[in-house]
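User: My instructor asked us to take a sequence, write out its structure as tokens, and then describe one feature of it. I'm not sure where to start. Here is the sequence I was given:
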Amino acid sequence: MVSFKLYCLDNSELAQYESRSKGYREDIYIYVNGDYYNVCAYDIIRLTQDFESEFEHYGFFSIEPNLILVKEVTLNAIKETIRLLLTDTRYFEKIKTVDISKINLEELKQLL
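Assistant: Let's start with the prediction itself. The structure tokens for your sequence are:
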């Protein structure tokens, strides 16, 4: 099993509630194999809404390259999805790492 650390910018109950209610969360950072990655977690309802809205207004939909689809936007679902991606896929080889100098590390809250 690949070990990783999971971080976010805001781990308050309010942030967790809002993420689950809105169906997305963009402040998730993963540290694995010496690199940091930022992922956006979406549930299928929010992804569908964004697709329909953008397609209606712009005629196309451009998906985020670091988007992960989760059953629900909760920390447990995000952790499990990342664990599966690290174990069963090459997902993190396909997305760009984050330039850590652009992140205030003191703001990150370790989740795992």
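For the description part of your assignment, you could build on this observation: Residues 5-110 form one domain. Try explaining in your own words what that tells you about the chain.
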